[in-house]
Specification:
Blueprint (H helix, E strand, L loop, with lengths): L8 E6 L2 H9 L10 E6 L3 H17 L3 E8 L4 H11 L8 E6 L6 H6 L4 H9 L19 H9 L2 H5 L2
Parallel strand pairs: 1-2, 1-3, 3-4
């Protein structure tokens, strides 16, 4: 069964397969996957932005839709964040978020978390988020996401994204 677009839900745009695996790992926690709609793989960070631009009409139509872009920042976090801010219409900024890995490839997380399993990494990343414990995010590859995670929390997303 798909998500109900008239209730709060998260639309996720993924750069590539590792992000899908990371997202699948969230199912092993108290993450409410029933309110998540995942787009097809974009196959590149530029295409994530293109797919986002194509989804703006739906975001405007459904006031309970929130959007999350997941991509590699390729050591260019600031420029990707600037592009993100330029891409999001002002009236939607409190419903659109971006997270990613500040490395060329998401595989960098495998060595950091000492596991070849992206699903286990996804589980580790979200299992303590609702409690405010972001210690798994405090590393060279993910530290850039901390303000965005706080912005998501402030927007009330964690209230319905975690059960």
């Amino acid at each position: 069964m798909g998500v109900n677009f008239y209730k709060k839900h998260l639309y996720v745009l993924l750069e590539d397969a590792p992000y899908r695996e990371i997202l699948n790992g969230t199912k092993m926690t108290n993450f409410n996957y029933d309110v998540v709609k995942v787009n097809h793989l974009s196959r590149g960070w530029k295409v994530v932005f293109e797919d986002f631009m194509d989804s703006i009409a739906m975001l405007k139509k459904y006031e309970n839709r929130y959007t999350l872009l997941l991509m590699d920042f390729d050591y260019k976090f600031i420029s990707r964040l600037e592009k993100f801010h330029q891409s999001v219409p002002e009236e939607l900024k409190n419903r659109v978020f971006i997270l990613g890995i500040d490395n060329k490839e998401s595989d960098a997380l495998k060595s950091f978390f000492r596991t070849p399993n992206f699903e286990k990494i996804g589980k580790n990343l979200v299992e303590n988020c609702p409690d405010g414990d972001l210690s798994n995010w405090k590393n060279i590859h993910l530290n850039c996401n901390l303000p965005e995670i706080e912005r998501m929390r402030d927007a009330g997303i964690f209230d319905w994204l975690f059960i």
